[in-house]
Amino acid sequence: MKYVSTRGEAPVLAFDDVLLAGLAEDGGLYVPQDWPQFSTDELSSMAGMSYAKIAYRVIRPFVGGTIADSDLEKMVEETYAGFGHVAVAPLKQIGSNDWLMELFQGPTLAFKDFALQLVGRMFAHVLAARGERVTIVGATSGDTGSAAIEACRDRENIDIFILFPEGRVSPVQQRQMTTVDSANVHAIAVAGTFDDCQDLVKGMFNDTQFRKAQNLSAVNSINWARVMAQIVYYVVAAVRLGAPSRPVSFAVPTGNFGNVFAGWAAWKCGLPIDRLVVGTNSNDILFRFFETGEMKMAGVEPTLSPSMDIQVSSNFERLLFDMLDGDGAAVRDWIAAFRKSGAVSVDDARLAGAREKISASRLDDDGTRRVIREIYETTGELLDPHSAIGVDAARQCRGNKEVPMVTLATAHPAKFPDAVKAATGIHPQLPERMSDLFDRNEKFDTLPNDIAAVQDFVRRAVEGHS
Ligand SMILES: *Cc1c(COP(=O)(O)O)cnc(C)c1O
Fold first, then answer.
1. Which residue from 98, 52, 101 is spatially nearest to 75, judged by alpha carbons?
2. Is 451 strand, coil or helix?
3. How far is the CA of 255 from the centre of ligand 1 (A)?
4. Is 283's C-beta closer than 6 angstroms to any atom of ligand 1?
5. b/e per residue, 370-383, with b = 16+ CB within 10 A?
6. Residue 126 is inside which H or E element, if any?
7. Fewer CB atoms < 10 Å away: N or C end of the chain?
8. Can you give the pTM of this predicted structure?
9. What are phi and psi of 200, to 5 degrees?
10. Is 308 in the pocket of ligand 1 (CB under 6 A)?
11. Ligand 1 within 6 A of CB of 143
């Protein structure tokens, strides 16, 4: 299995190199050169298997032998054994032929754990085999930093530094990052905004000398390995609900397009998916694209679903590559035109091709609260705001009612207690295993919004235990 860049000018790589590289050298994203195919017999045989067993089968062809089978199998088993529900990704019925897949049973209560918990292990494994180490740096507005920290904690050849804006993340979010008691984890409160944090991270990557000396790396959502790991739950949901003999549809609350692209990838591998529904909040660039074929930038406004407040979805480039028939030069032109004018289109035939599989919808904050309340009243389930947008998307773009529809629930309601309380009057409780979050000791450093200070901190911390 080899991987090519969506922009066609980077070296063709095997999985282990793609994993460590993240972004391709030409600025593109890695995608498989060919999609492995799951046969009908293979899918049938998965119906009764555990999540981890299916995960191993789905992931193995993508890894292409760069990690030994026995190591991979062990890593996958360990990853999902750490989740808070025996089913790992339980399916709940919320209507006739209407399902919710709970992707929030991981250590940080959001779906990103499904990929990051495995990717952290894969990083450590590949680095150990090569005798290398890395320094991972990232910025968070609160929601995603903890998933990266949990993925990297206690891994020998990794140090992780997560910058967050001091006083601007919610108490749950802050504590999920600052109560991790591991020597290689460094949560840093920056006296500044989220944009300042992002600029500091960019500044560190742009400082070539520093980047090389520290062997800087990132585990952001463009990493192919994250998309790969997310293909698994599409397969799990589908085989539980009748695939391969009947198709299944999915509704996906979407931000950077990584999650829904994993669904597209599952379909490319032969999973019978009827429809993929992209749910957006009022930051609706993707909704408008699937309506009109034009990708047109607009300002980002904050909503109740912050993980979907995006201007440009980085993983969309992978779909674009498919829509443009794998033509890297055409992708480059398209991206360049978009950068230049903030707007670019695909022709009607290509749009129609994508719409055969993908629909899109949008929901504002009032609608989000309404859906949370309605679902609570009719089923007793508490939805977080992101998942509520997914449920609404499923309804708006239902299509064939005989096809089971699965909404991916991407966060636990207790991660967004204020929105849930406002909609239902109920304060959602953290799961038992995390109920002492507010009694744990916090450990973090506070630094000025100053690149030299942050770099100095990183250098010293890494030296301190290498
Ligand atoms: C990251 C995230 C999303 C968006 O997922 P993408 O893969 O970026 O589209 C949706 N919901 C929650 C809770 C998230 O954390």
1. 52
2. helix
3. 5
4. no
5. ebbbbbbeeeebbb
6. helix 112-130
7. C
8. 0.96
9. -65, -40
10. yes
11. yes
Are 101 and 407 in contact by the 8 Å Cβ rule? The answer is yes
CA distances from 382 to 289, 370, 405, 425 (A): 31, 12, 19, 11
List of residues 6+ apart from 95 with CB closer than 8 A: 379
Q: Could you give the CA distance from residue 343 to residue 218 in angstroms, rounded to a whole number?
A: 28
Residue type at 157 in one-letter notation? N
Asked if 42 contacts 57 with a C-beta cutoff of 8 angstroms, the reply is yes
Name the residue with the closest Cα to ligand 1, atom 15. 307
| C-alpha 131 to ligand 1 mean position (Å) | 33
Question: Given ligand 1 and candidates 103, 259, 412, which is best to mutate, with the most ligand atoms within 8 Å of its CB?
Answer: 259
The answer on pLDDT for 59 being more than 80 is yes
Q: Coil, strand or helix: which one is 448?
A: strand
Q: Calculate how far, in angstroms, residue 394's C-alpha sits from the geometric centre of ligand 1.
A: 16
Residue 132 CB contacts under 8 Å (≥ 6 apart), including other chains: 157, 215
Cα separations in angstroms, 351 against 256, 325, 341, 356, 444 = 19, 13, 20, 9, 48
- Distance from Cα 45 to the centre of ligand 1, integer Å: 30
Q: In the beta sheet, which residues pair with residue 13?
A: 3
CA pair distance 266, 238, nearest whole angstrom: 10
- Residue 256 CB less than 6 A away from ligand 1: yes
186 touches ligand 1 (CB under 6 Å): no
Q: Indicate which residues carry an active-site annotation.
A: 112
Taking each helix axis as running N to C, give the angle between helix 385-396 and helix 365-379, from 0 to 180 degrees, rounded to the nearest 10: 90
Q: Which two tokens stand for residue 216?
A: 């800087």
What domains does the chain contain, in order, with CATH numbers?
A: 91-107+224-424 (3.40.50.1100)
**In contact, 19 and 250? CB cutoff 8 Å:** no
The pLDDT of residue 422 is: 97
Tell me which residue has its CA closest to atom 8 in ligand 1: 256
Residues 219-230 have pLDDT tens digits of 888 999 999 999
Residues 282-320 have pLDDT tens digits of 999 999 999 999 999 998 899 999 999 988 899 999 999
Residue 257 alpha carbon to ligand 1 centre in Å: 8
